[in-house]
Amino acid sequence: MKIDYREIGLKVGLEIHRQLDTRHKLFCDCPTTPREGGREIVFIRWLREAQSELGEVDPAALFESRKRRMIVYHADTENTCLVELDEEPPHDLNREAVEIALTAALMMNARPVDEIHVMRKIVIDGSNTTGFQRTCVIALGGEIEVDGKKIPIQTITLEEDAARIIEQKPHEVHYDLSRLGIPLIEVSTAPVINSPEEAYNVAYAIGRILRATRRVKRGIGTVRQDLNISITGGALVEIKGVQELELLPKVVELEVIRQLHLLKIRDELRSRGVSEDDLKREPIKDVTSIFVKTSSKILRRRIEGGGVVLALRLKGFGGLLGLEAAPGIRLGAELAGRARAWSEVEGIFHTDELPGYGISGEEVMRLREEVGAGDLDAVVIVAAERERAEDALERVRERAIEALYGVPPETRGARPDGTTIYLRPRPGAARMYPETDIPPLPLPREYVEEIKRRLPPSLDEVAEWISRRYGVSKQIADELIDSEKVEIFERVVGETGIQPSIAASILVEHMKSLRREGYEVEKIREEDLLEFFRRVVRGELAKEAAPEIIKWLAQNPDKSLDDAVNALGLKAVSLEEVKARIAELMEANRDLVRSNPGKAISVIMGELMKTYRGRFDGGKLYQLVSQAVYGQVRD
Ligand SMILES: [Zn+2]
């Protein structure tokens, strides 16, 4: 489907989050990088309903608190202290983080605030031990230019990163506290982006400015992008947690398709005369008896466990639940997503997808009869304990009513394929209040001016410099920067003395193509790469071994370079051994060497490469063979 994004009034705003590479966390002295050797502390908390100081309950907070989940925290004594455990008040705001955020803000022409006020933002999914996330505005009203268009930067804020989920079960969630409190910069643009490509270009430009500070973290999990997306007649939908920059255009495109699809369904429902009153009046029915002998495993398991199967007829929804606008984008998925998020049910089905999943045609017929569903009606069934099943179907009813009005405003989560899933309602305005444990931090004009004088060069300037300093092309320099390999490149060249073009081609080209083949090259430790280049320089490994070694290390991220060398049989060979082998091959091909030296070289090289590929430098090998062959010819 070709979409005219201007025609449909697409508006996208971005929130780019990136971890800062500070020595300490934002409100305590714990390190921001994992350290070995700590003791693990495990403790449990229960979610509670949080009220703002005005006494209002935030809709997003209410959503979490009704789930009554047990939260299990795993803390490591090496990177968590009493602050993360919420047993001690936060320390003062980390000055190093403030300085980095200010640097980025000034590079985006934003206006720093006179005084930093730390606020509490209610987040009670358990990702913060306190029930809120601390956040503070550093600067306002910036602007960057992307492809000739001015993109307003509304705010630049500093916040504490949340704990990371390590395990999730229906009534229980486990968090690792290592990440909690790592400083995070958040850059928010105005919703002026009008196409999926532009979303990518703007995020890329902001990423380059942040990286130009040279004080942001790199690698998996250090960047998260949130988007808010709307189209004319649709609604503002917030999408959280896009980790890959490359995925942004797809997320935007799929969200537009989803909103257009929901608008189309709204029109169809209206033309079918479906009314909110009918939906509200529809009773929920117990249809367990139909399924006592079902071959659907999931229904049977629920029934045997004491649960029930409940059904809700959706008058006029027949055929619309299963209608697919793009893979995974169906109204049926929306209803199920809402029910799953609120009531944590698993066994949920609708008649547009039945018979199927072990549910027979006869069972569907009896179900339709039981609830009085006509041809244009759909029926949704849920199998769970009675209370939970009722709750889930109330959510389905609520979401079905919203379908009459088009697109519901909500917060959704991005999945790796670019589709999204319902997370929770959009938070209300009552969600922020002042953090009274931390005094405001004034930003004197002289201090800001000082940072302004010391702004780092842009990445374009850095690329120029790298290109000149190391004699690599501007394109290679840009690729080193974009693949975030500059630091390791400079270390490799500086510490090993390897030719810069060799280091660049392995770090950029080899790693990029292996990544495209699906190898998780980001997992390789910098120390192992460094050691690889050291050995190449010492002649203990051939640079040709790079692809094999990189592949192996990507697949075995816990192993070392030594393990790779052993596993791949790349043990170094001595020059003597190679020379002896060449002499043998010369002898074996004596006639050919005399009659056709060129051919002889390629035959001998072919033999040698079978044994020495990756263990001895190819160029050097070729040199030795030609010397030997032509030496003999001359004799
Ligand atoms: Zn700490």
Question: Overview of this structure, please?
Answer:
The chain has 21 helices and 21 strands. With 635 residues, it is α+β, with helices and mostly antiparallel strands. Strands 1, 4, 6, 7, 8, 11, 12, 13, 18, 19 and 20 form an 11-stranded mixed sheet that branches. It is globular and about 100 Å long. The chain starts with 10 loop residues before the first strand and ends with a helix. Bound molecules: zinc ion. The site of zinc ion has 8 residues, from loops.
Summarize the structure.
The protein is of the alpha+beta class. Helix content is 40%, strand content 20%.
Helices, by number, come to 21
Q: For the report, how would you describe the main beta sheet?
A: 11 strands, mixed
Shape estimate? globular
Radius of gyration: 31 Å
Number of beta-strand segments: 21
Distinct ligands: zinc ion
User: Helical amount among residues, as a percent range?
Assistant: 40-55%
Estimated structural class:
alpha+beta
Strand content: 15-25%
